[in-house]
Specification:
2 copies of one chain form a homodimer. The first copy, chain A, is 33% helix and 13% strand. The longest helix of chain A is centred in the C-terminal third of the chain and has 17 residues, at 193-209. Chain A has helices at 15-29, 64-73, 79-90, 107-116, 161-174, 193-209, and strands spanning 2-7, 33-38, 93-99, 138-144, 179-180, 184-186. By secondary structure, the first copy, chain A, is an alpha/beta fold. Chain A starts with a strand and ends in a 29-residue tail after the last helix. In chain A, strands 1, 2, 3, 4, 5 and 6 form a 6-stranded parallel beta sheet that branches. Chain A has a single domain (2-232), classed as Rossmann fold (3-Layer(aba) Sandwich), CATH 3.40.50.360. In chain A, helix 1 (15-29) runs parallel beside helix 6 (193-209). Chain A is globular and about 55 Å long. The interface between A and B is large, with 72 and 72 residues.
Chain lengths: 238, 238
């Protein structure tokens, strides 16, 4: 089994780094080969542009979806994208490790998805959800928050955590066919103190120790949406 | 009245650019001064790091929220952030113009929010939602999609558009006190053809022409959440 941890935090001593290390150690102890993409350390480029491609589909009008599809088919993806895509394709388990910033992913991690989740490679015409190209892989979001758990409860000011993560869980991970495990959320991290942090790390280790027993999040099945058609589902607009 | 349009698309001939121009023209005709932040043209840096600050709160541990708050209080924000923050603070209306990529903002726009929405400047201790620092401003999301409207309906494969945009609408714009107008969504853009695109542009112009009559989206009020406390609401986790 191979695990890819995509880690998005600028501070090597952050609690996110500690969570990353717990996952690496626990999964290695289970016999996984674990690879880490440390996006900040790699100075990963977040914004899609022409430099993503050595190929060119249309020099007059830069359409991201069409250029990605063309580049994927003609070996025109830039090396930094190709490397990450290969890591993703060879992984059995993907862990996204990040702090919740403005109720979503840090920009550098959104950029990893924008640039690496290539049309043709991770999804295709009818190849989404239970037909997605990443079918058979599992995915897991591990996120830290500045607020306590009840701040993400029903009727809360923030809204519910699963709703906030739905565009990522369903729109990215489930969309491409991955089995999406329930997220591990480390709440109230800035106020947890050393003991509280140790408890959270132990909880994450225990969570990963029983990872095979986790019940995946429900995802749509294509068969339940007979009205779906190819042009209905491009996840990159012009 | 001043309008700031934050535009996030790499292609100057894109439909997003056409929507941006419609907004600029229509709002100027209404007497607004319109400013555009063209994030790709500006090569706006998306990822928060130490280079965002000339000041330093803690050289040992880079905590984004604490560094932002300190830098804001001590004139330590980098010039590119300061310029954008001043544009935001002086605007009466903020328009975010972007294509829906993976059911959210392009990374470069998420980075604009991560870096410019500074603790202390746009929100504070008890200064969120109806007490937020950006109170009195209006905000409007104009987004393009590759899929038809029904692909974002109830029970759809994609989920409902207002749910997908909730982290932005409520978690960023409403959180900081802005009055959030209903989004303008240009659906199915890659398949609209020249006539369909002309219709969408005319609809957007008409929408902006009646902007003062639009009913804002409902937002939480602090008074309805008496259990709220300062440490419950940091929107940037460690």
């Amino acid at each position: 089994m191979k695990t890819l941890i995509v880690y998005a935090h600028p501070e090597p001593r952050s609690f996110n780094a500690a969570l990353r290390d717990v996952a690496r150690d626990e999964l290695q102890a289970q016999g996984h080969a674990v690879e880490v993409s440390d996006l900040y350390a790699m100075k990963f480029k977040p914004a899609i542009d022409r430099e993503d491609f050595s190929s060119c589909y249309d020099s007059e009008n830069f359409n991201v979806s069409l250029e990605q599809r063309h580049a994927h088919a003609h070996n025109g993806l830039s090396p930094d994208i190709r490397v990450e895509l290969e890591k993703l394709q060879s992984a059995d388990l993907l862990i996204l490790q990040f702090p919740l910033w403005w109720f979503g992913m840090p920009a550098i991690l959104k950029g990893w998805i924008d640039r690496v989740f290539i049309s043709g490679a991770v999804y295709g015409r009818s190849a989404i959800f239970d037909k997605g190209r990443l079918k058979g892989k599992r995915a897991l979001v591990c996120v830290t928050t500045g607020a306590p758990a009840q701040a993400f409860g029903p009727e809360s000011l923030n809204g519910e955590m699963l709703s906030l993560l739905a565009p990522l869980h369903q729109g990215v991970l489930g969309f491409t066919g991955m089995t999406v495990l329930p997220p591990f959320v480390a709440h109230h991290v800035p106020y947890a103190g050393p003991d509280g942090r140790a408890v959270l790390l132990a909880q994450y280790r225990a969570y990963l120790n029983k990872i095979d027993a986790l019940q995946p999040l429900p995802m749509p099945r294509l068969a339940d949406h007979p009205g779906w058609s190819e042009d209905g589902m491009s996840p990159k607009a012009q």
